[in-house]
Amino acid sequence: EKxxxxxxxxxxxxxxxxxxxxxxxxxxxxxxxxxxxxxFLLSKKGRxxxxxxxxxxxxxxxFLYHILPKRMRNYLLYKVYAS
Length: 83
Hints:
By secondary structure, this protein is an all-alpha fold. It contains four helices and no strands. The protein has helices spanning 12-27, 32-43, 56-67, 70-81.
């Protein structure tokens, strides 16, 4: 199975923590109606943006991504998803 690691893998604990974190994020995500409304409004524009963050949390994380050094971003991702 692609979503399982060997029980002897040194990454097993971090992998399981990451899967739990992602599942939690998916369950408590943004209301689909809000996303649909934003997509509809964007579709009416002449020039679409390359990407768009929806929701305060995602916009804040996108902002941090642009101002933090790569090493700090990687550390924060590790803390959120792997530890």
